[in-house]
């Protein structure tokens, strides 16, 4: 047991040193985030990697402007809206489930436009080092390996990289993984390239991968890779919310869930709460639930802004003062029937999205980055490239399919139907809050599927309005109501008296151990940078800095 804990401690120290090294060598927040994301793709291969995609929000402390890079995966060109009708598992597992990955394209776009302090290969080398020397299996990965044991062991390629050759069993927590040699080769090629996009999306890597997909009846083609582009969103497309006290939130437009997250904060921003009493706490949680219902009701009407005409307008509605004031006037002391909250498409719902990883960084110049990266469900599509060692996403499952109700039985959202080149909706909400005087910055985001929105909203509100420090805000008990279905999920730590008070106001709820994992960095007005990584993911999750 002592050896196990020592290996886990070394893992934490290694990640701390990697991030510190990038920052100490003069790298900025964008470069530190890219290097860390490369490493998370190695350490948490079940939730991130080159086979997935991400959304990044950047704050430039000099210009006091936000930038957003959308590196979300897109549907292959030969996709149609009904390809998964009555074939639900086909969108989750196997070659057809894979959307065109955007991870690397996004990294290079971010590096070329917002980085450049360090050499590109400097950002990739720490991940290569992890693969070459091996790194201890985290408790989170070990648990996911056991949860998906049957699928992994029945897949020859996956079994070859996740089975300990010494024991013949799946890697356990603390055991050293050094079996991903193909991926190490791929990263070396990308690290030493003057333009890795030419190799990955237009060259030999794209050709090798597309041949594998053709052989296995997948939909990805060389043309799909060749056509993929990450997007630097224009300022008019970025979602902003003006808050009291000179603060502004910025985040990505749909397919991100950022607008819904900001909508919840927008509603609550002019409400006052006293959390020192049970009745005051009941008021707070009741108002949060009600605000969530109004904001989430619009989420089902959103879709990729390049495909859904009214999606951007609805997103900006969520951040308007007029809409927030109207909703505040509708929040009473009791809950109401569903039609009371309906702001978007009645009785339609998006599919449930799944796990991710999040990184928040603030550098010595005050620049900030918030990036959420994902494969979708754990281990994505369970498709591992034999030639490159890349594990691919199952983002096709994040689309809605006509005639296929979601997990809760609600009809699908037409705004999220599959179209060639379209990005599926997501709850990912990498947001940044900054003060106009430049004296405060908060970079925050979360993992946890559809509960990301409520987790980021509540934690951000607790910092900005309730006055909690970032540790108190992240540690604080959470709840979640996404309107469809209209019941509230609570963390078990919430006191019984509080639950009883909410029951009296008409709320129905279910208990969970925990809902989501929030990561944030807060440069407070005292000039000190405070960071916290959610305890809910386990003790291996730690902030880093110098």
TrEMBL record:
Keywords: Acyltransferase, Glycoprotein, Hemostasis impairing toxin, Hydrolase, Platelet aggregation activating toxin, Protease, Signal, Toxin, Transferase. The keyword Hydrolase applies. It holds the Pfam family G_glu_transpept. One of its GO terms (molecular function) is acyltransferase activity. L-glutamate binds at residues 72, 374-376, 398, 426-427, 449. One of its GO terms (cellular component) is plasma membrane. Residues 1-29 form the signal peptide. The active site is at residue 356. Coiled coil: none annotated. GO terms for biological process: glutathione catabolic process; proteolysis. The keyword Cytoplasm does not apply. InterPro entries: GGT_CS, GGT_lsub, GGT_peptidase, GGT_ssub_C, Ntn_hydrolases_N. Belongs to the gamma-glutamyltransferase family. This is Uncharacterized protein. It comes from Meloidogyne enterolobii.
């Amino acid at each position: 047991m002592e050896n196990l804990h020592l290996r886990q401690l070394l893992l934490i120290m290694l990640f701390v040193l990697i991030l510190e090294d990038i920052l100490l060598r003069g790298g900025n927040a964008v470069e530190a985030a890219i290097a860390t994301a490369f490493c998370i793709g190695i350490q948490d291969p079940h939730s991130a990697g080159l086979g997935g995609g991400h959304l990044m929000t950047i704050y430039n402390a000099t210009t006091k402007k936000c930038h957003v890079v959308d590196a979300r995966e897109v549907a292959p060109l030969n996709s149609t809206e009904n390809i998964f009708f009555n074939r639900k598992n086909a969108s989750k597992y196997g070659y057809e489930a894979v959307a065109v990955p955007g991870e690397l394209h996004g990294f290079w776009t971010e590096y070329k436009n917002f980085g450049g302090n360090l050499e590109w290969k400097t950002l990739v080398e720490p991940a290569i080092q992890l693969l070459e020397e091996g790194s201890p299996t985290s408790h989170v990965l070990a648990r996911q390996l056991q949860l998906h044991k049957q699928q992994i062991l029945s897949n020859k390629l996956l079994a070859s990289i996740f089975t300990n050759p010494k024991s013949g069993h799946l890697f356990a927590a603390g055991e050293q993984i050094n079996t991903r040699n193909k991926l190490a080769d791929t990263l070396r090629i990308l690290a030493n390239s003057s333009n890795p996009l030419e190799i990955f999306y237009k060259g030999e890597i794209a050709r090798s991968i597309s041949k594998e997909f053709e052989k296995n009846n997948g939909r990805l083609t060389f043309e799909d890779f060749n056509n993929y582009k990450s997007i630097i969103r224009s300022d008019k497309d970025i979602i902003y919310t003006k808050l009291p006290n000179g603060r502004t939130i910025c985040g990505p437009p749909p397919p991100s869930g950022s607008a819904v997250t900001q909508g919840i904060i927008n509603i609550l921003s002019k409400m006052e709460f006293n959390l020192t009493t049970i009745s005051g706490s009941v008021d707070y949680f009741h108002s949060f639930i009600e605000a969530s219902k109004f904001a989430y009701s619009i989420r089902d009407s959103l879709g990729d802004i390049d495909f859904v005409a009214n999606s951007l307008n609805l997103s900006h509605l969520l951040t308007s003062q007029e809409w927030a004031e109207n909703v505040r006037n509708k929040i009473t002391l009791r809950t109401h029937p569903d039609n009371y909250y309906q702001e978007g498409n009645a009785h339609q719902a998006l599919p449930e999205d799944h796990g991710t990883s999040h990184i928040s960084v603030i550098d010595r110049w005050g620049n900030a980055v918030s990036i959420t990266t994902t494969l979708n469900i754990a281990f994505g599509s369970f498709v591992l490239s034999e030639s490159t060692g890349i594990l691919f996403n199952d983002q096709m499952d994040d689309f809605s399919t006509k005639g296929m109700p979601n997990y809760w039985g609600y009809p699908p959202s037409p705004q999220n139907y599959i179209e060639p080149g379209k990005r599926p909706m997501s709850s990912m909400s990498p947001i940044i809050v900054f003060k106009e005087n430049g004296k405060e910055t908060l970079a925050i985001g979360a993992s946890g599927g559809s509960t990301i929105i409520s987790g980021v909203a509540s934690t951000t509100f607790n910092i900005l309005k309730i006055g909690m420090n970032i540790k108190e805000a992240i540690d604080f008990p959470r709840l979640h109501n996404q309107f469809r279905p209209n019941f509230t999920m609570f963390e078990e730590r919430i006191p019984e008296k509080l639950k009883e008070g909410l029951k009296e106001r008409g709320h129905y709820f279910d208990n969970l151990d925990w809902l989501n994992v929030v990561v944030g960095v807060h440069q407070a007005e005292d000039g000190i940078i405070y960071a916290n990584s959610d305890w809910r993911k386990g003790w291996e999750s730690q902030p880093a800095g110098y």
